Amino acid sequence: LQSLLNGLMCYKPDDPIEYLESCLQKVKELGGSEKVKWDTFVSPEKKTLPPLNGGQSRRSFFRNVMPDNSNFPYRRYDRLPPIQQFSIESDTDLSETAELIEEYDVFDPARPRPKIILVIGGPGSGKGTQSLKIAERYGFNYISVGELLRKKIHSTSSNRKWSLIAKIITTGELAPQETTITEIKQRLMQIPDEEGIVIDGFPRDVAQAISFEDQICTPDLVVFLACSSQRLKERLLKRAEQQGRPDDNLKATQRRLMNFKQNAVPLVKYFQEKGLIITFDADRDEEEVFFDISSAVDSKLFANKEAAAG
Fold first, then answer.
1. Average pLDDT for 111-138
2. Which DSSP helix (H) or strand (E) runs through 279?
3. Contacts with 79 (C-beta within 8 Å, 6 or more apart), sequence order
4. Which residue, 115, 158, 201, 232, is the most exposed by fewest CB within 10 angstroms?
5. Which domains are seen in the chain, by residue range?
């Protein structure tokens, strides 16, 4: 194989199939593959190898005889499918050593783990507002995953990897999963003494949820803000006018809404099966929504304290 590739790179034949077939014929003449060396098909004299089958190559034979036969089991010389878009995570030129996923404990196993509340919902459902209110009421730390990524993009604008991620987010697609998990892990390790942490806008799909549990922990509570599509669109348009976020453009907004619709049902079902999620009607006034969330958090995470106080 190496010899064949060397020959191909050296000669760059117009018809590589015919060239390879000629090389295989030469292998037979030499007495088998054990006689082939790395430079067998790379000689100083660039002589044209003789065609097979008395001047007619097998390729032209197949083309002339069976090119359009629908009963033929396969097309011998059909092109291979294109290679899929490369993975940002697996591209070594784009990876940074500090961001490689390692097996380590995010929280000190010798200390009590902080309570983790995940707040999920469609774009414009009020995740940020409600997350901040929860964090303020219970003295928890607040992490916005979207803001975390936007700050990283802004601070590393010359980095090729993060430039690509910025384009991905601007079109309304999800940022690469392992990059997002890594940023969350690094942020959590900066706040080891918190009693609780509210994470806004994560996970976006089941794969992210599983990755979060595998690499960080199982959340104590998941708050799902259910909101009608019409209300989401209205809020996003209003936010675009007020904040001018790059991912609030019309095309990105439509894409984000579509991604949410596709991923919301399986994601909610995943957490429902684990008994971790509570759903709230987010079409209402934000104070009404927060009152219901507070009651649920009190009951789910602080039931013992309430009993002691009562």
1. 93
2. strand 277-281
3. none
4. 158
5. 1-33 (no CATH), 115-303 (3.40.50.300)
